[in-house]
Design brief:
The chain is α+β, with helices and mostly antiparallel strands and 135 residues long. It has helices at 13-19, 26-34, 80-84, 115-134, and strands at 5-6, 11-12, 38-40, 43-44, 50-51, 56-61, 64-70, 73-74, 87-89.
């Protein structure tokens, strides 16, 4: 084992989340912790909370829930192949693309939508949400 990874010891939760590449930056991980989007063993935690092997970390990031069990503690960012070995991923599979709410884009320079356009957009979004809840 190197000094960066060990089976014992602890690390800050925001640092560990960033180290195993669940978020792109450490500041994103810390913001998620402060916002209540990170839970360790069912409890909301602050960025400085110490994680250890065996802890279950739940992270809500980028519209997706991640559930991972810490198998190895790393304090510095590691490569993707090593990062995958540091946790056991128990996350639910992401929803199929067909069930996600479609993104409505308007042409640039067309101005604000009219009342009629707004109603059509709302109708489209309501249909997509109804399909999401039925599925």
């Amino acid at each position: 084992m190197t000094s960066e990874a060990s089976d014992t010891g602890t690390a800050r939760v925001d640092s560990w989340i960033w180290s195993v590449r669940l978020t792109k930056t450490r500041s994103q991980a810390a913001t998620a912790c402060r916002g209540g989007h990170v839970r360790v063993n069912g409890e909301r935690v602050k960025p400085a909370y110490a994680v250890k092997p065996g802890d279950e970390v739940r992270l809500r990031h980028a519209g997706r829930d991640r559930v991972v069990v810490v198998s190895r503690v790393v304090k510095k960012r590691v490569g993707a192949p090593v990062a995958v070995e540091c946790y056991v991923d128990n996350s639910p599979p992401p929803p199929p693309r067909e069930l996600t709410v479609p993104l409505v884009l308007r042409d640039r320079g067309t101005g604000r939508p009219t009342k009629r356009d707004r109603r059509e957009l709302d109708r489209l979004q309501d249909r997509a949400q109804d399909q999401w809840f039925q599925g």
